[in-house]
Amino acid sequence: MSSRIALRRISLVCAISVCGFAFAAPTVTLLPSGEFVSSLSYDGTSACGNIVWDGSYETFRWTPSGGNVRLGLDTVIPIGRGSGTPDISYNGNQVSASILSSDFQLTQGLWDINGGWTETMPPPPADGALVDDGYGSAWGLSGNGLTVTGFYWNAGYRAIASSWTAAGGVVALGQTAGRSARANSVNYNGTIACGWEETETGSWMPRAWRDGVKYELDNRDGGVNTAEGLNGDGSIIVGSSQDEDQALNVATIWRWNGSDYVTDQVGALPDTPAFFGQAILLSVTNDGTIAVGVNQYSWGNTEGMVWTQGTGLISASAYFAMVGVVLPDGYSIADCYNVSADGSTINATIIDNETFNYYSAIIRLRQPCPGDLNNDGQVDDSDFVSFAAQYDALDCADPAMPGYCRADINNDGVVEDADFVLFAQAYDQLVCP
């Protein structure tokens, strides 16, 4: 029996930890103070965010080898306005953000590693308008890097929830006339988005848009409640909703049941005061097993939190201690802003309690494992089946491409022979590092 086959048979009858295999210890990477990550790629090997320390709020792209690279077209210094959040595609090759337009206004932009920035406006849509030196702003990017979401302004000074593609331009997602709305996030292929819509009193309510249909996720008035993140296929959405019994806006998960979203209020951390406190989930893994967010006890007093299927909602410090993450002494966790789609990486904002400086911490729970397409810790025959299906589809931009194009191991936009060579190397190793 070959060692390869023997190892496979062993892996079928015992857990990796029992058999003596162990994943590498978690690592923590601190970015310079004032450079804050807002989005992670599929496996956390690249990220994007804003540079704050110089007052520019310029968008950057981060990789472990290259560090932070400024992408230009910042707006705050030139025109005194900023809005939106930078977001990054699954493969890390595209970034969306609010940028300075060619006519010196605030607009949505899509950056590509090969082509630089593309602005979505001007011109605005037929019902769009230039309001306060801006056409609109960018708040989300699809995993395939093709769809930008956010909002554009209309002549009535209302924000119109929107999506943009190069082929279709800026399109309104649909909302109650006379009210504002925004699309905060979008799924992998750009067909499902989530965000908020205001009520007649101005309160924000969580919303989803699926293939042109708006879903009212919750209508209990808690002042400000939103849907903030969703998984790759759009079946799981996270955010906050009002718990009327506790008089709190609480962390909430909505799961698609085939015809509607079912609400699961997972609560807030202990000692969160009624009326003044709140909890919100900001990001969720593709399989829905981990979600992260922030718990606010009072204005300026926040704590990162993590929800898992096994633990329920717990503080980030408790979760990190449980999984072996060691933070520098004297630091506390202000929020957990992102979890990568594969669950390997969490981005948290941490505070040095001596200097009161804030840092983005990229916390890697396990090392990257190219070729592990089903995310089970091994590169085996099931991954080969998935690779073959993606290899047949070839182009990552093809709507028929399965598996989020994770077989594009070299991140060049196609699944071809070069990826097969890399996959074969990982297949020979079998167990992820």
Account of the protein in words:
- This protein is mainly beta and 433 residues long.
- The chain has two domains: 1-24 and 369-433, no CATH class; 26-364, 6 Propeller (Neuraminidase).
- Helices cover 11% and strands 40% of the residues.
- It is built from five helices and 28 strands.
- It has helices at 3-13, 76-79, 316-323, 381-393, 417-429, and strands spanning 27-30, 35-40, 47-51, 58-63, 67-70, 87-88, 94-100, 106-112, 116-119, 136-141, 148-153, 159-165, 169-172, 181-186, 192-198, 204-210, 213-216, 227-230, 236-243, 248-256, 261-267, 278-284, 290-298, 301-308, 312-315, 331-339, 345-352, 358-364.
- The strands form seven sheets. Strands 1-28-27-26 form a four-stranded antiparallel beta sheet, with no helix packed on it.
- Helix 4 packs antiparallel against helix 5 (417-429).
- Residues 1-22 have low confidence and may be disordered.
Which key phrases capture this entry?
433 residues, mainly beta, 2 domains, four-stranded antiparallel sheet, 11% helix, disordered N terminus
Under the CATH scheme, which class of the largest domain? Mainly Beta
Radius of gyration based on Cα positions = 22 Å
- Please tell me the overall pLDDT: 92
How many separate helices?
5
Biggest sheet character: 4 strands, antiparallel
> How many domain units?
2
How many beta-strand runs?
28
CATH homologous superfamily name of the largest domain? TolB, C-terminal domain
Spatial shape: globular
Helix content: 10-25%
How far apart are the first and last residues' alpha carbons, in Å? Answer: 24 Å
